[in-house]
Amino acid sequence: MDFTRLGLRDALVQGLAKQGITAPAPIQTQGIPPILNNEDVFLNAETGTGKTLAFLLPLFERIDCTVKDLQVVILAPTHELAMQIHEQSTTLARNSGIPVRSQALIGSAAVKRQIEGLKKKPHLVVGSAGRIQHLITLKKLKLQKVRAVVLDEMDRLLVDESLQQIRRILAMVPRERQMIFCSATRQPKSLAEAQSLCPGLQGVSTAANRIAPNIEHLYCVGEERDKFTLLRKLIHAQNPERALVFLHRNEDVEELVTRLAFHKINVVGLHGGMDKLERKNGLDGFRRGKSRVLVASDVAARGLDISGVTHVYNLNAPSSGKDYLHRVGRTGRAGVSGCAVTLLTDPELRLVRRYEQELDLVMTRISVRQGRVILPRAPEHRPADT
Predict the structure, then answer these.
(1) pTM (2 decimals)?
(2) Is 80 exceeded by the pLDDT of residue 162?
(3) Closest to 217 (Cα-Cα) out of 323, 307, 302, 325
(4) Which structural domains are found in the chain, ordered by start?
(5) pLDDT digit string (tens) for 332-344?
């Protein structure tokens, strides 16, 4: 299968080739035709498998660039994911020569500047539900001509306050609009909400709720107070080309960045308490290789596509298999091998069994001695569920 046979015009196929993309991923092969056919679709595939292009490509085909109407609204749960989608959209427009105008509308950015940008009449906007709703309230964003609405990482969007904002946004969009939902997991609650919004929703699934098979899953055990020292030793022993370290709390990110930098590790932080410019500069530096380690709260775990991440370290263990999937899915993308290491205390060992059962994977216990990672010599004892 190639992109032309999926119904995409030559300009888009040539634009993809400039990005080194010459063959469609499974989610694109299955998802592009029904979206081109104006059907309501749920794209369900594991992280790093091309879901963004699975909806952007057919939407580019359907956008009418001869008019100045806003035709597509894409909602994302984090600023980073929204900017990533916006950048892919602008890259696709530039490389293909198709003049789709895209604008990012995220919180923490200046509203006045966004209003000025809307005067250029974008065909597509991507952003947070809160900021988009605010601009609608200000009567600066009009949705009467919108043809399609995309909810990326829908299990983060179809909950609580965000769900109410989305319902208000959809009330301003024509009833005949197309709806596209995306997620790496199948959460019953969010799927039920999606189906209530779109009773005829068509599911397109390619092994979601699964982690890429090319990721090695390891764990270390120690006291809570010793986790930093263990992490530092792991980084020196494994020498990752590019690593993500995950923590639960924003304030812990700042502290860990300071401690790692003291030990001469080139590191940058990313968390929800930082302003837009700080987050952008940190991510850009990490992507360009100026920093080898990115310490992040879970704001970075959803949908973020950073090429070349070889290792993921969970300094704070995720409480569920779903959260583990989203974190470690930042490595092992596009078929490249990756490594995930989770640091656990003795009481947290029960999580090993949880991850293994929920995600159908095998984790290996390791230790670090004399600057080397030590693998077990014999089958290890696995803790029973409690």
Answers:
(1) 0.72
(2) yes
(3) 325
(4) 4-206 (3.40.50.300), 215-374 (3.40.50.300)
(5) 876 789 999 999 9
- The helix-helix angle for 111-118 and 129-137 (nearest 10°) equals 70
Rounded to the nearest integer, the mean pLDDT of the chain is: 90
Give me the phi and psi of 89, to 5 degrees please: -65, -45
User: Distance from CA of residue 6 to its chain's centroid?
Assistant: 25
Helices (DSSP H) in the chain: which residue ranges? 10-18, 26-36, 51-62, 79-96, 111-118, 129-137, 154-157, 160-170, 188-197, 227-238, 250-262, 276-287, 321-328, 350-359
Residue 211 has what pLDDT?
74
Residue 243 backbone dihedrals phi, psi, to 5 degrees: -130, 145
DSSP state of 299: G
Contacts of 179 (CB under 8 A, 6+ apart): 40, 41, 148, 149, 150, 151, 194, 197, 198, 201
Pairing outcome for strands 215-221 and 338-344: parallel
DSSP-assigned letters across all residues of 71-108: -EEEE-SSHHHHHHHHHHHHHHHHHH-----EEEE-TT
Could you give the CA distance from residue 35 to residue 202 in angstroms, rounded to a whole number?
Answer: 10
Angle between helix 160-170 and 129-137 (nearest 10): 40
The answer to whether 324 touches 355, Cβ cutoff 8 Å, is yes
Question: CA torsion sign, 25 to 45 to 90 to 246?
Answer: negative
For 219, residues 6+ apart whose C-beta sits below 8 A from its C-beta are: 341, 342, 343, 344, 352, 363, 364, 365, 366
Q: Is the pLDDT of residue 121 over 90?
A: yes
Q: Which amino acid is at 87?
A: E
Residue 204, strand partner residues? 43
Percent of the chain with pLDDT over 70: 95
- Burial class of 22 by CB neighbour count within 10 A (0 to 12, 13 to 18, 19+): exposed
Task: Render pLDDT for 183-207 as a digit per residue (tens, 0 to 9).
Answer: 988 888 899 999 999 988 988 887 5
Among the listed residues 65, 35, 12, the one whose alpha carbon sits nearest the alpha carbon of residue 177: 35
Per-residue pLDDT, averaged over 114-134, amounts to 97
Total count of residues recorded for the chain: 386
Please give the biggest Cα pair distance in the chain: 67
